[in-house]
Design brief:
single chain, 443 residues, alpha/beta, 2 domains, 10-stranded mixed β-sheet, 7 helices
């Protein structure tokens, strides 16, 4: 199945002039840093990304990885480079996470007056803040050094981002409080922003990261985010990624994760908002005995389109991974899931499990699912599967026979379907907010 493309060519592909990334690159914000050495290093990084973009165009539905998601209409939007905007603390009150250390970025720029990073520094083992004012450890071995950052939108971010959230945990640091990075998009104008985050968990460290994308107002904007996570030897990172932009927005996101020996990475990715969203989640197990857990929940309604592409790539023996992604699709919405697991010859004794389950709440809802295993090693345990279903009328009738009305019965069944993902979320405040969103999807 191929989604119809918004195109003027007879082949169904937007002409190259409409797909030229130079139009979007011209909207970048200046990278003015206070430290000259840092500015020089970032300028080199930026120039490298610009050079890579010269040979790339926006992907279309004729590209295999994008065949269900058409992003060429982005170049028809009246996009602008964001200005320096202010947001009141009251406007963000509903998004704050109790007891979390908070870093707030407004239209891609750090807002120190809205942030509460808490006691950070060498004595606590945590250094967190803005790249523009970074005084912590050297970042050049990490920033933009992940594998598979060659995609067009990722290179566009590298060439255009104006600031970045940086979180560094020193060796042996166990942080009890979660760190909440809140990326806020204002929608008074059709802004193109490039949120960026860099997370470094040193050997034997542990912490929880909440990465949150929200939109204020109902206007359209485009958020093109990139997050890099480094889990070094025996480190543990629990990552909650919440995408709840407004329903007129476009969200393109990339999460790249590097795991070293004995490290543990868990991602809970929840997609609620945006008119069109795409999340590329790629995990590279760079050492033996690494463990990866990916939990995903996509909630779409109206005319929303939500696309999730994931990749887990093994490189050493004794690696494990568990992936469960669920989609709840209502009205005329469309959800896409493509999950890849690659196991080369060197990755013997791998144990990989992948499952995608989908619930359609209307006859016009649509889901495209493609779980993939690419296995070369011969001594592995790997499974994958996908299911697509609707609410069972007999289950609804059973609940009604127990005195529960039809609407509440459907809500209970939808909540039960999503419960496996929601109940695994380690932050109570986030769980409560997602439960409310799930209940709103009942027919």
């Amino acid at each position: 199945m191929t989604v119809a493309s918004d195109s003027t060519s007879s082949t169904g592909v937007a002409p190259a002039s409409r797909r030229d990334l130079g139009t979007l690159l011209a909207l970048r914000s200046p990278l003015a840093m206070t430290d000259s050495a840092l500015n020089q290093w970032l300028s080199t990084l930026r120039s490298k990304a610009e050079a890579a973009l010269k040979s790339q165009l926006l992907p279309t539905t004729r590209d295999e990885e994008w065949r269900f998601t058409d992003v060429t209409p982005l170049v028809d939007l009246p996009l602008r480079s964001p200005e320096v905007n202010t947001v009141s603390a009251e406007a963000l009150a509903s998004y704050r996470i109790p007891d979390a250390l908070q870093l707030v970025f407004v239209d891609g720029r750090y807002a120190p007056d809205l942030s509460s990073a808490g006691a950070t520094g060498p004595t606590t083992g945590l250094t967190a803040g803005s790249l523009r004012s970074w005084t912590g450890p050297e970042l050049s071995p990490y920033l933009a050094q992940q594998q598979a950052l060659e995609q067009a939108f990722t290179q566009l971010n590298a060439a255009s981002f104006s600031d970045a959230a940086v979180i560094f945990l020193a060796p042996n640091t166990v942080l009890e409080q979660p760190v909440h990075v809140l990326f806020v998009s204002t929608s008074a104008e059709t802004y193109l922003t490039h949120p960026r985050a860099l997370v470094i968990a040193s050997p034997h460290s542990q912490f929880t990261l909440i990465e949150d994308f929200v939109g204020l107002g109902e206007g359209a904007y485009v958020s093109n985010s990139v997050t890099e996570v480094y889990a070094e030897e025996n480190a543990e990172v629990v990552h909650l990624r919440l995408q709840r932009d407004n329903t007129s927005a476009y969200h393109i996101g990339k999460t790249a994760v590097s795991q070293q020996r004995d490290s543990r990475y868990t991602c809970h990715a929840v997609s609620l908002g945006s008119k069109l969203s795409r999340h590329n989640l790629e995990v590279f197990q760079q050492g033996p005995q690494t463990d990866t857990t990916l939990n995903g929940l996509t909630l779409t309604t109206g005319g929303q389109h939500a696309d999730t592409h994931s990749l887990i790539r093994y490189a050493h023996p004794h690696g494990t991974s568990q992936q469960l992604h669920k989609c709840i699709v209502a009205d005329r919405a469309h959800a896409v899931f493509n999950g890849k697991v690659k196991v080369p010859q060197a990755a013997q004794l791998t144990d990989a499990k992948q499952l995608n389950r989908n619930l359609l709440l209307s006859s016009k809802a649509r889901v495209d699912t493609k779980p993939q295993l690419e296995i070369v090693a011969d001594n592995v345990k790997c499974t994958h599967g996908a299911t697509v279903s609707q609410l069972d009328p007999t289950e609804v009738f059973y609940l009604q026979s127990r005195g529960i009305d039809a609407a509440q019965a459907q809500t209970l069944l939808i909540r039960a379907f999503a419960g496996e993902i929601i109940d695994a979320l380690p932050v109570e405040a986030v769980r409560s907010q997602i439960v409310v969103c799930v209940a709103a999807l009942a027919p």
